[in-house]
Amino acid sequence: MTWKRIFHGFVLCSVMSLVSGCGDRQANEPREMVLQTEAGEVNATVSKSDDSMAYEIKALTAEERSQLETAQQQAVSMIARYLGPEASGPVDLKKLDKAFSLWVQDTSDAKESADQAALYFGTVFGQVMVDTLDMHWVMVTDQYGTSYGIQYKETTVLTFPIDSVAKRIDRGETGFFEGLYFTVKTVTKDPRLQSQ
Which structural domain, as residue segments, surrounds residue 70? Predict the structure, then answer.
């Protein structure tokens, strides 16, 4: 399975056309928005799924769940290595942002590859959303490939935390976990931004 899909952005799918539709825009064309969140204003990319683009959402198999749990365990070890005593207790958004920044700055031979970092940080970030936002892990397959995703209840609201981290690594961004989290939280709590 590839961790970087061609369409590997942070995408909230099936957002109502009221929000993502705009005259001559394509139905699935990403739209930049400013959302008011608990963290303040957050710039977000939101897109409505294109009904012509088929995708399949499946529950995780036992093997996929095991791979995810292994990646989460490795992530916790990596975060502990970067944060030292600060890493004690549950991983939160601030710890993720700090550990990620330290990973970016790391020049040692022990540094995880970009793909490993996307997997590790993405699985822990995804688990934070699962634990706090009534979401669950799924496997999503579309024309670009297969990827772990997070689904809100049984709606079509999906996020791809591993792919999202990979995109930020490619862009050289840091300090994004809190903004991404509150963007997802805003969408999951506002029925106008979702469809069943």
Answer: 17-193
Q: What is the pLDDT of residues 120-159, one digit of tens each?
A: 999 999 999 999 999 999 999 988 899 999 999 988 889 9
* 157/133 Cα distance (integer angstroms): 12
What whole-number distance in Å separates Cα of residue 32 and Cα of residue 87?
A: 34
pTM: 0.79
User: Residue 173's closest CA among 124, 121, 111, 128?
Assistant: 121
Q: In CATH, what number is assigned to the domain containing residue 112?
A: 1.20.120.1090
Give the largest CA-CA distance in the chain. 53
In single-letter form, the type of residue at position 106 comes to D
- Over residues 97-122, the pLDDT tens digits come to 999 999 999 999 999 999 999 999 99
